[in-house]
Amino acid sequence: MRTISLQGMGIGWRRELALFIDRMPAPGFVEVLAEHLPLTSPIPEPLLRLRERGVPLVLHAVSLGLGSAEPPSPERLSWLARLAERLGAACITEHLAFVRAGGIESGHLLPVPRTEDALEVLAENVRRAQDALPVPLALENVASLFEWPDPAFTEAEFLREVLARTSASLLLDVANLHAHVLNHGTDADAVLCSVPRERLAYVHVAGGIQHGGLYHDTHAHPVPDGPMALLEQLAGKLGPVPVMLERDDRFPPEAELSSELTAMSSALERGAIRWRGAAHG
Amino acid sequence: MNARERLAQAQVELVRALGVGAPVPAGFDEARVQAAAQSLIHKRRRAVEHVWPKLVSALGPDFAARFDPWARAHPMSVEPDPRMEGRRFAETLRTEGHLPASMSGVLLDFDARWRWTSTGEAVKRRGFALILRRDTVTRRWQVALRLPGERVMRWV
After folding, report:
1. Does A147 sit within 8 Å of B29, measured CB to CB?
2. Optimal mutation site among A15, A104, A218, interface B, most CBs of chain B within 10 A
3. What would the pLDDT profile of A68-112 be if each residue is shown by its tens digit?
4. pTM of whole model > 0.90?
């Protein structure tokens, strides 16, 4: 099992944020969307500069469909493997989701049923992906507006099973967890308790909005208190963890981004203080 | 049936409900699945709006009203590419006679830069390319020439 050793405060790289990220004094790591990188033309300059500064780069993919009934296609896997090599990526991250079925592309990360069937298929898909990828793989929990009927596992049990049946790491998205608390009444504490520190690659924080009685994970709105509180709670259990801000749309002024990063760092610190207290008390 | 086959069947039913308005499979909260379907359409529309600003301004308030039903009737069969989504949408508008006249040249320019593969993906053209077509409304010939170095000359 290969552990992923990222540290500090990261951010999701987008062209619109390139200047802001260039000016960050010491980003812990930067996550790059695989589907945004050109296939053949060179890696964008700002990313190469980050690499020269020694900032670890993480390759984040959305189109593999590891939770899909169809195994991940060899073409997609080799494309991802090549990108990871060209980028010098520290790891690759994908979602516990499926994106296509029966010839239709959903264009979105759809939840997998929390059943024995889905776990069996997922574990096999993950194994195939790991065999084809040159760097460690971490899996991310997704946000959804609906649930599959008759789940055999709770979300916490499902995550524990995924970790038990694969050697992949976990990318825990506390914003997605927050969405599930609001939309489905998920037990967040049980989910946070099911994450062993050595299997946690890093944490995602993002904003969303309440609309029509549902929480939508938009990555286009300010981060609400919920995900920050979950981040603090997680750090209270595990100590300081690598964490990053995801913003995909409606990019705010730099001051707003900076203050979100500061708020994340304060939440981490508050949690870490409790963790240290518990460890020594 | 094995686990993969059972999962495949369940996923196809759900994706059809989300993508093309097929009946919501039994056991799901119908309103929630509809909300998710709506948000998928919004996502597609926002992406197309982003890369086709001229089509948005040419259609004005009609854009969303025309795009949303079109998107439901034309599910994505290849990986999401808003460039091609917008082009396919414009093509439907053209054949139905709803394409604003100002878009004619924009499409010609696009076609001189991109070609569609048989699977519906967009590939950047290289070198020389000549596009020749007759406008359905004005009946006039339109010509676009792509030169090496990505320059396009148009006679509309």
Report:
1. yes
2. A104
3. 999 999 999 999 999 999 999 999 999 999 999 999 999 999 999
4. yes
